[in-house]
Amino acid sequence: MSYLLHILTIPEDALAAQMIPIQREQAGHEVKVVDLTKPDADYRALLEEIFAADSVQVW
What are 1-25's pLDDT values in tens digits? Predict the structure, then answer.
């Protein structure tokens, strides 16, 4: 199983909103989304997630 991390930097990004559900539906993927547009973003946890992920997409 591959671990995919999506990092959101733009509120309500249309392309990210289309791609993330598609990847969630594909078998064999674990998908996590970190939203940096929220004021309570935990950057320390984000760093750990980046190193744990097989693939990182930044939107």
Answer: 789 999 999 988 999 999 999 888 8
Are 41 and 35 in contact by the 8 Å Cβ rule? The answer is yes
CA 37, 42, 44, 45 dihedral sign is: negative
**Cβ 29 vs Cβ 1: under 8 Å:** yes
Residue 11 DSSP code = T
Which tokens belong to 44?
Answer: 């320390």
pLDDT tens, residue by residue, 23-49: 888 878 899 999 999 898 899 999 999
